[in-house]
C-alpha cells in the first residue's frame, strides 16, 4: 500500500479544524448517488443531504443525511492516483470482515467499484454516534475517569490482534512473513532515494542499526496501522470504544509493531500526532507506559515484550521516513496537504525520537 499520512493528523489541536462537517469541497453528482443508494442500501429513502467532514484529508469523507437515517461515505479522490493509494475498497473489505468479531467497526452498507457513479470508487457505512478525542491527554474527561478510556483502547487493540485473519477471510490481506525486513527495506529505500530532502545523521544511524537488530519471531495478524485515540469513536457517555475508523493502512503485519505504534503516544509530541509528549501520565490520571504494556500483555497472553524499544524505534523511523518524503514534496512544490510544511519541519524531531529508542536498546 502507498504510504499516507493518517487522515487529520495534526496533533492535539486538530479537533477544531477536523471536527464536524460542512461545505462539500470535493463535489460529485448527488442525484446519481441517491439513485445508487436506493438500489443498493437497504432501507434508504431520500431526500439526501450531503456534507463533507472537515477531517479525512486523504480520502474525502461525507456525512449523508436523510429524514430517517445518517450514513458516512468514503471515496477515493478523483483523478490519477499512485498505485495502491487511497484504497477505500480495501477499507471496506476489512470493515466487513471484522464486523462479526469483537472489534468495534461501523457496519458497511454498500460498496461501489464503478467510477461512473460519482467519479471514483466508494463505500457507504452506518454513521456511529459518539465522541472523538483529538488529544491523547483526554482533557475533556474527568481525571479520575481517564484511565478507563485508555483501558478501552487497550482492550480494543488486543481484540484486533486476537482475530485469526484466515478465519475472517483476510488470509490474503497482506504478505505474511518477514514484516520488519520488508518494512525497513521499503522506508530505507524511500529515505535514501529522496536526495532533495537531504540526509539526517539519526536516520543514517537507524538505517544501519535496524536490520541487524530485528527481534526473533514472525507473528502475523490484521494490523490497523494508525491506531490512535482520534481514529476511534467512543460511546457518548461511557469509556468504551464503539467504532475504530480509518483502516487505510491496515494489512497483515506484526501485532507488536502495531501495538508499539499505538503506544508511541507516550513519547509523541502532541503537536505532531496525538500524544503525551513525554509528560508524566500519572498526574494526568493515565496509566504509565509500563502499565499499559502490561495490560496488553495480559490480554494477549504474553509474559512481556522483549526488545520493546526496537519496536518503538522502528515506528518512529517509519513515521520519520514518511515525513521526510513530505519534506521532499514540499521542496518540489508538489505537497497538497495544508499541514505539509509543519510535517516536513517535524521530520528531524521524529528521527531523534527514533534514535533515542534505538540507543535505549543498547
Entry summary:
37% of the residues lie in helices and 11% in strands. The protein has helices at 14-18, 30-40, 88-98, 146-161, 179-193, 201-209, 255-263, 289-300, 308-332, 340-360; strands spanning 21-22, 49-53, 61-65, 70-75, 108-112, 122-126, 221-223, 232-234, 241-244, 251-253.
3D structure, described in words:
The two termini are 32 Å apart. Helices cover 37% and strands 11% of the residues. The relative contact order is 0.14. With 362 residues, the protein is of the alpha+beta class.
Question: Rg from C-alpha positions?
Answer: 20 Å
Low-confidence blocks of residues: 1-18, 80-85
Distance between the termini: 32 Å
Number of strands: 10
Question: Strand portion, in percent?
Answer: 5-15%
Keywords:
disordered N terminus, 362 residues, globular, alpha+beta
Could you outline the blueprint of secondary structure elements for this entry?
Blueprint: H1 14-18, E1 21-22, H2 30-40, E2 49-53, E3 61-65, E4 70-75, H3 88-98, E5 108-112, E6 122-126, H4 146-161, H5 179-193, H6 201-209, E7 221-223, E8 232-234, E9 241-244, E10 251-253, H7 255-263, H8 289-300, H9 308-332, H10 340-360
Helix pairs in contact: 4-8, 5-9, 6-10, 7-9, 9-10
